[in-house]
Design goal:
Blueprint lengths: L6 H7 L1 H14 L6 H14 L3 E5 L2 H11 L7 E5 L4 H9 L3 E5 L10 H10 L5 E5 L8 H10 L3 E5 L7 E2 L2 E2 L6 E5 L13 E5 L2 H10 L21 H31 L15 E2 L5 E4 L3 H10 L29 H6 L3 E4 L7 H12 L3
Parallel strand pairs: 2-3, 2-4, 4-5, 5-8
Antiparallel strand pairs: 1-9, 6-7, 6-10, 8-9, 11-12
Helix pairs in contact: 2-9, 3-9, 4-5, 4-8, 9-12
Amino acid sequence: MIPQCSPKANYFALKGEIDAAIQRVLESGWYVLGEEVNAFEREFAQWLGVGYAVGVASGTDAIELALRAHGIGEGDKVATVSHTAVATVAGIRHCGAVPRFVDIDPLRFTMDPASLEELLAREPDVRAVVVVHLYGQMADMPAIMEVARQYDLVVIEDCAQAHGAELSGRRAGIWGDAAAFSFYPTKNLGALGDGGVVVTDDPEIAKRLRALRQYGWDGERISQIEGVNSRLDELQAAILRVKLRHLETMNAARARIARRYLKGLAQLAGIQLPFAAADARHVWHQFVIRCPERDRLAAHLRASGTGCAIHYPKAVHMMPAYALTEYAPVSLTETEKCVREILSLPIYPELSDAQVEMVIQTLREWK
């Protein structure tokens, strides 16, 4: 079986460096919010080109704390998309805010600026927007930022699937007021467990984030505000420091695999290949095709030994926990259509040329 993703293969590719980093932490005697976290925060901020990075326990927490740091809380409306990992919406709900779903661009699978504007015309009291960069490609940030400025919105970027993605020469994570990254093991920059980070250029927001992630403490461990326990631990930070050094190489490997898929599947009837904007750098967190007969195609791939996945089989607004009419005041036609057709093919840096060719051949044999 060719797996759809393989964090294990990524570990073995960097095993010597990762094992040495883990050993360094174990021998240090300091395991929470120590020098490894401090160093990773500095290195990640420098790599991205922002002033501050604040490590937290997960990408979900990163969204919650980014919103809370900007004063978004109980009852506030936050616009986002329903075609995303449920973590995006969980982060909004965890800070007491209320999601308002907008539709997606059917080519990028990301937020449709026109749908956002339609929502805001109906509900001008929306206070923030969480923009999700999906599958390795950025949303249309110039258009979204124009709408956001018009309505004075706090803009949080969900960059969980966009480590290194760019649009018009600017990286994901530097467009809005803050950005949240996840380091879940399958991400382009993945830990060997959970982890996340919030980035910002605002020193006061960074200071507030550092307090929020640890009970709202000041320097004397006195809670000045209500915070949480959400800390990136030393082991994960040390592992991420190793992987950050290799991120550009790993993203380049993903891009090579994507190019081979795009070439090898170009003439295949019944399948729509991923769109990549001309002025964008797609980092191919997932290679997502569309097929009206998705379920039959997935069964064919699996029977032939090719792993595949559906990101995501249901839009968030279709899940029982979030199936409230008030959450979706505008049409989500494109969202509901895409979740019936999308299929993620195998893609990870260690996927061999032979395996890529096997996937292509298996798809060519389908019908």
